[in-house]
Design brief:
By secondary structure, the protein is α/β, with parallel strands linked by helices. The chain is built from 8 helices and 8 strands; from the N terminus they run αβαβαβαβαβαβααββ. The protein has one domain.
């Protein structure tokens, strides 16, 4: 079948299913809010990467946060109990162009406020341009998918931060700045320096040993990008819970040391 036809069918199908998901979500949450007098006030923000220390959030500290950004999370990153720990929070999904998504049915019961693609907004829309969306799986969640805030060119900041996890932190920092929130907690941002992800071995994410080692060697560059990002938000304290051995220069990054 012609590639363009497949592209159009996928786009229409995923949008239709997304519309159905939107309606189901609307009904479930109107009932939930009515029964529980739900009125969330956001005071603490967490950003969760997929590294091993994401388990600190899900096992120990999930109760202290009101808004959570999930970077590139898929079904394999969340067990059944994890979904319950995301209830009564504002959740934002930030994804790359592969558009990995968590379990759609379980997310019907979670307050998903935004879905962000780690691309400028013009590439988050239906387009035939290079680097634009090809999957549209994120539309299945029934929430509008947008591109990065203040991004107009894939070759300019903030896209040059060049990592969906760091771009999640960027979006969280913008929200915190607008809402006078002074701290952001970071979980699971080892930047390939640890052999474990939240629920799996890091090397299982790659098709070859060479690709795995290439990403491990990228730790310094990505850590440096986070250092740069933090320097742009001097009024926010970034509490880094990761095992990342990098020594940050920014005084507003507070690294926490845990025994590995």
């Amino acid at each position: 079948m012609n590639t363009g036809v497949i592209f159009n069918i996928r786009y229409l199908l995923f949008n239709l299913l997304g519309l159905i998901a939107f309606c189901i979500r609307k009904v479930l949450f109107s009932l939930y809010h009515k029964l529980n007098k739900y009125n969330l006030i956001i005071n603490k923000i967490a950003v969760c990467g997929r590294g091993i220390t994401a388990n600190i959030f899900f096992e120990e500290e999930y109760k202290m946060h009101d808004k959570v950004y999930l970077a590139n999370y898929s079904k394999k990153d969340l067990n059944f109990i994890d979904y319950f720990k995301l209830l009564n929070k504002d959740i934002v999904i930030v994804a790359n162009v592969s558009e990995e998504i968590p379990n759609i049915l379980l997310f019907f019961f979670i307050k998903l406020t935004e879905v962000i693609l780690s691309r400028p907004n013009y590439l988050a829309k239906r387009s035939k341009k290079d680097f634009s969306r090809k999957s549209f799986r994120l539309n299945l969640l029934g929430v509008r998918v947008r591109g990065l805030s203040n991004s107009t060119d894939i070759n300019k900041y903030p896209c040059t931060l060049d990592n969906t996890g760091i771009l999640s932190i960027y979006e969280a920092a913008l929200f915190a700045s607008k809402n006078n929130i002074k701290e952001i907690y970071l979980y699971g941002f080892e930047f390939y320096s640890n052999p474990y992800n939240k629920n799996s071995l890091l090397k299982n994410d790659f098709i070859s040993t060479a690709q795995y080692e290439e990403h491990q060697a990228d730790n310094f560059r990505l850590s440096n990008n986070l250092d740069y990002l933090a320097s742009l938000f001097p009024n926010i304290l970034f509490v880094d819970k990761s095992f990342n051995p990098y020594r940050f220069n920014s005084k507003n990054i507070k690294s926490r040391c845990y025994e590995q």
